[in-house]
Amino acid sequence: MWPTREQRVRKTVAKKIRDQIYNLRDTTPATAPGLKTITGDELAKLERPIEKYGQLVECAEVLVNRAQPVELSQMEFAAQVSSNIRTGISYRETFCMI
User: Fold this and answer.
1) d(CA 98, CA 34)
2) Can you give the residue range of the structural domain that contains 53?
3) Distance, CA of 41 to CA of 47 (rounded, Å)
4) What is the 3-state secondary structure (H, E, C) of 26-40?
5) pTM of the model
6) Which end of the chain has fewer CB atoms within 10 angstroms, the N or the C?
7) How many domains does the chain have?
8) pLDDT band at 76 (very low <50, low <70, confident <90, very high)
9) In contact, 88 and 58? CB cutoff 8 Å
10) Please, which residues have CB within 8 angstroms of residue 77's CB and are 6 or more apart in sequence?
11) Average pLDDT of the segment spanning 55-70
């Protein structure tokens, strides 16, 4: 079955957004107020609930833009994210597949 017009348009828009994010990754330093580039280990420390000396409060939302999910290489981080989701933390992640 051929994709519908709506599916083709959606795919075209998604590709444009993906390409824009990918093209920014090496050229745009994190200079906006409140933004900084951190390592996966730093992210893992921040992504703990406050009770575990992190920075997440109830109903927090985590926004991540990475080349690859850190959870692929760090199982303990994947477990922390899973635990966070079960307690009501939401995630929005974009990945630039290389």
Assistant:
1) 27
2) 5-95
3) 10
4) CCCCCCCCCCCCCCH
5) 0.46
6) N
7) 1
8) confident
9) yes
10) 40, 43, 44, 47, 70, 71
11) 75
